[in-house]
Amino acid sequence: MSDLASAIGMAAEEATLVADLQAGSEHAFALLIAQYSQPVYSMIARSLRDPADAADVTQEVFVKVFRHIGSFHGDSSLRTWIYRIALHEASNQRRWWSRHKRQELTLDAQQENEDGEAFSLGETLASNTDSPFQCALQSEAKEQVAAALRTIPEAFRTVVILREIEGFGYEEIAEMLNVNLGTVKSRLTRGRIALREALRKDALKDSASRTACSASLAAEVSR
User: Fold this and answer.
1) Residue 97: φ, ψ to 5°
2) Domain range 106-223, its CATH number among 1.10.10.10, 3.40.50.720, 3.30.430.20, 3.40.50.300
3) Does pTM surpass 0.85?
4) What pLDDT score was predicted for residue 106?
5) Residues 61-82: what's their mean pLDDT?
C-alpha cells in the first residue's frame, strides 16, 4: 500500500511540474534542469563518439524540452519523454560527426586516440590489485568501459546504456525507441556480447603490448 501511495504521490508531483512548465514557470524549468540535466548529460556523453560534445547536445535537449513541453500530454512519463528527446539529439549529433568532424581529424590524432583508449582499457582490466589505488582504478575502469561502449553498434549501445546504466525498464525502452519488447531484449543481449568482446579484445591488445615490452627490456638487460 505504501508503494502505491508513493507512486500516486510521484505522479501527482510530476503532473504539477508539467502544469507549471506549460504555464511558463521559470522556477519549474529550473527544477527540471536540476533533476534531469546531469543524468541526461551522462547518458549523452556515453552515446557520442566525442564526449566533449555532450554539453552542447544536452543544452539543445533542454531547449527542445522547453519549446515542446506544451505538446506533452502524459502519454508516457516525463522522464521517458525527456530521454526520448535526448536520444534523438544524440543520434543527430552522431550523424553530424560522421559527416563533418571525422574529416577534420588527422590520421595521427586518430591513431593516438585509439592507442590511448585501448592501452588504458586493457591495463585497467588486467589489474587485480587490492592496493590503496583501487578506487582510482575503478573510476578509470568506468571511463574505459564508456570508451568501449562507443565502439559497438549504435542500436545495441543505446539499449545497453538505457538498461544497464540508466536503469530503464524494458517497456520504457521499447516506448522510447518505438520498438517491441522482443527487439529490446534482442538488442540488449547482442549489445552485452559486443561490449564483452570489445573489452576482451582490448585486454588482449594490452597483453600483447606488455609481452613485447617485456621482451625488449629483457634483450636490453642481457646486452
Assistant:
1) -60, -40
2) 1.10.10.10
3) no
4) 44
5) 92
